[in-house]
Automatic annotation (TrEMBL), chains A, B:
SUPFAM superfamilies per the UniProt record, alphabetical: Periplasmic binding protein-like II, Winged helix' DNA-binding domain
Taxonomic superkingdom: Bacteria
HTH lysR-type domain: residues covered: 4-61
Cited InterPro entries: LysR_HTH_N, LysR_subst-bd, WH-like_DNA-bd_sf, WH_DNA-bd_sf
Organism whose genome encodes this protein: Kitasatospora aureofaciens
A GO cellular component annotation in the UniProt record: protein-DNA complex
One Gene Ontology molecular-function label: DNA binding
Annotated family: Belongs to the LysR transcriptional regulatory family.
Pfam families attached to this UniProt entry: HTH_1 (PF00126), LysR_substrate (PF03466)
UniProt keyword annotations, A-Z: DNA-binding, Transcription, Transcription regulation
Protein encoded by which gene: hcaR
Name of the protein in question: LysR family transcriptional regulator
DNA sequence: ACTTTCCATACCCGCACGGTATCGCTGCTT
DNA sequence: AAGCAGCGATACCGTGCGGGTATGGAAAGT
């Protein structure tokens, strides 16, 4: 049975996303007729209708929706394959670790130091990215990432838990809750919360948050309050206070990497990170 | 940047597996020269050497090994995409569940009964397969599978634990250990163990095991002994006995399905299975 | 009913993929 | 050392398919 081709899947996802052959063709840098043909051909080959052409309106069929989702994973896998292969081929081997600035729970320096003493340790390149960090992993642009559960989608990734933290509410010292020794989620009703990039449109319509400094600044300006892992306390500005949120789900900082990763350097890094985290947790609480 | 094509990856995996252009070409149903060209083109496009042509010998480079692994996941994803799309397009919606005969811990009948009472339940098609059950899932041939941790590789799958069991040693009643009330792994030194299909060549060189009846038969014939989940006791022949293995890692029976699965029917099935397992475990131990 | 919009069809062209023939290197053989 | 055999690379050629232009035809808006 003749296999699907990447080109066809690219075409199909374009059409499925635009729901408009003309725009999809423009986006693909081609003209509309060959695109129509390609989709028809794909439908014929699969023996399944993917789109409902309603004269004016184009809609996905059930099967089309399935193929759209599947296509994305295939295309991700394909571009990751290219990127990882290129990286393996080029000389200068490095470990690319993507982090959220301020989101390392204070563990990162110790981990990096410990790792550099490992035999065969590679230089570690840090990439800071506030949102979309999982994407970088899935696309093969990075070797590992520091993520948070349950905040991030971990499907397709292997993980190593590093640090489980309770969460604190961060607010200006003048805030009505600033005097409390503890709060619970109900106390936050009506408070504007930050809108994280990538997260589907939340309660707040304010600006997207792109970095921790910006977030703390906005909090200081009384534009919002934020619920963050307690290790944030080490980095708080003087004009902000943090109090525990009793019923907020604990957050786990973890190291994530693509499934099936085989690099021994990455394995050593994971081992080191787990060891450092275990040690810290052991007497740090 | 021009993307990789499925055809190229198929070609490359053929060559990488055969390490011989001629044989690879034959396997692909084509002649050798276009294959050589395609690989060269792939290397040029990636800017990376994938194969070392040592006059007589063809070997994978580091990058080639990476691409081989990545290619397999891409090709799996692609064929799964085709299969799932076709299944979504055809009428008759069913849930395909792949099981190991005798490997259901006795839960399956209750799960199936409970599921059929769910609103919108689909007919469930059972597929029995002793080995390679994960593959069926990854290839999109099945919707869910009953697997065991740690026996199976669960990467790329989402899972729901159903039942954790201790393991027992199954042997003929005349076996030297048959009188014991418990054994430990050290007692098994030198005993021939079954060779499971898919598992990389183990200690035993006997025939591969393809079904539970066969295995028990071989055990009865004193050809081997087996360490199995304790629920196997319900299905033991009269001439066999089972005693707990104290230090064998407990086995967890779980339901696994492909990541990103969205079918509501599957979701209902998972929910039902979890509920049934929870109830059973609650008073069953 | 006329227009507009947009997908499908018809037709043509160029390229890239696959085939045949052959070269050239390498390692074994005697 | 020379001959040979195995095997990948190169050269060259034909054709099928992917992509382009022009146009048809159905549906929605006015």
């Amino acid at each position: 049975m003749e296999s699907l081709e990447v080109r066809e899947l690219v075409y199909f996802t374009a059409v499925a996303e635009e729901l408009h052959f003309g725009r999809a063709a423009a986006r693909l840098g081609m003209t509309q007729p060959p695109l129509s043909r390609a989709i028809q051909q794909l439908e014929r080959r699969l023996g399944v209708a993917l789109l409902e052409r309603g004269g004016r309106r184009v809609a996905l069929t059930e099967a089309g929706a399935v193929l759209l989702r599947e296509s994305r994973t295939v295309l991700d896998a394909a571009s990751a394959a290219a990127r990882r292969t290129r990286r393996a081929g080029r000389g200068d081997p490095r470990l690319v670790l993507v982090i959220k600035p301020g989101g390392d729970g204070g563990l990162l320096p110790a981990i990096l130091d410990a790792y550099q003493t490992e035999p065969g340790a590679l230089p570690v390149e840090l990439v800071c990215s506030f949102g979309e960090r999982e994407i970088l992993l899935r696309e093969g642009r990075a070797d590992a990432a520091l993520l948070h559960r349950p905040h991030h989608d971990l499907t397709g990734l292997d993980t190593q838990d590093l640090l489980t933290e309770t969460q604190v509410l961060v607010m200006p010292s003048s805030h009505r809750l600033a005097g409390r020794t503890r709060v619970c989620l109900n106390d936050l009703a009506g408070e504007p919360l930050p809108r994280w990039p990538g997260a589907s449109e939340g309660r707040s319509h304010g600006p997207e948050i792109h970095d921790l400094g910006q977030l703390l600044h906005l909090v200081a300006l009384r534009r919002m309050v934020a619920v963050l892992p307690s290790s944030i306390r080490d980095q708080l500005r003087d004009d902000l206070v943090a109090v525990p949120v009793d019923d907020a789900e604990p957050t786990t900082l973890l190291l994530a990497w693509p499934e099936h990763a085989t690099s021994p350097a990455l394995a050593a890094f994971i081992r080191t990170a787990a060891a450092v985290a275990g040690k810290t947790t052991a007497h740090g609480g």
